[in-house]
Design a protein that fits this description.
CATH superfamily of the largest domain: K homology (KH) domain
Number of domains: 2
Distance between the termini: 75 Å
Strand order of the largest sheet: 1-2-3
Helix content: 25-40%
Largest sheet: 3 strands, antiparallel
Structural class: alpha+beta
Shape: extended
Order of helices and strands: HEEEHEHEHH
């Protein structure tokens, strides 16, 4: 059990309890495509990662694709929440693994049929290696499944909005018309 994790979480809990206005957070990620291929650079805080498509989907296979990253985000988030709650509960967890699968009909992506372009189903297996009593692991699992932000985001309908801004690389060739 990591006392650093436990202490950080208890301090955060105390801060949010005493100042609820600090509970609302905004996370950000930016992606950039400035090459003539499908490799995308994503920047998150001080980190840069590359996403791409496999060769069979027209990519260069220089990184995982976005739907694979979504599955990795689900597994990683669960593992983090398992570790966080285990530290608060005083449970010793040797190892956590999450193996996620997403089922996707490529006809939606390729506009070949009127089917969703995203996953139709996501499943996962969480493997916890621990000598803790089964009842404690069950309680831990219930907390994780209720409080994992990525799992929650995938399981309920959320509002997504956006806009498109177009910037020209060259100045217009026409002389602007003056209206008096």
């Amino acid at each position: 059990m990591s006392t650093e994790i436990k202490n950080a979480l208890l301090q955060l809990i105390d801060t949010v309890n005493n100042k609820p206005q600090l509970a609302s957070s905004v996370f950000r990620a930016s992606s950039f495509s400035d090459q003539d291929n499908l490799a995308i650079r994503s920047q998150i805080r001080g980190f840069t990662t590359t996403m791409d498509e496999p060769l069979a989907l027209g990519g260069t296979d220089s990184g995982p694709n976005p739907v694979e990253m979504l599955l990795a985000a689900l597994g990683s988030c669960q593992e983090i929440v398992y570790r966080a709650y285990a530290s608060i509960m005083g449970l010793k967890i040797e190892r956590i693994e999450v193996h996620a699968k997403g089922y996707l009909d490529l006809r939606g992506l390729l506009n070949l049929a009127d089917v969703p372009s995203g996953f139709s189903q996501v499943s996962f297996t969480a493997r916890i290696i621990s000598d803790e009593p089964e009842e404690k692991i069950r309680q831990l699992t219930e907390l994780v499944e209720k409080h994992c932000p990525v799992m929650d985001s995938l399981m309920r309908e959320i509002s997504v909005s956006g806009k498109v801004e177009v910037q020209r690389t060259t100045a217009p060739t026409e002389t602007p018309k003056v209206v008096l």
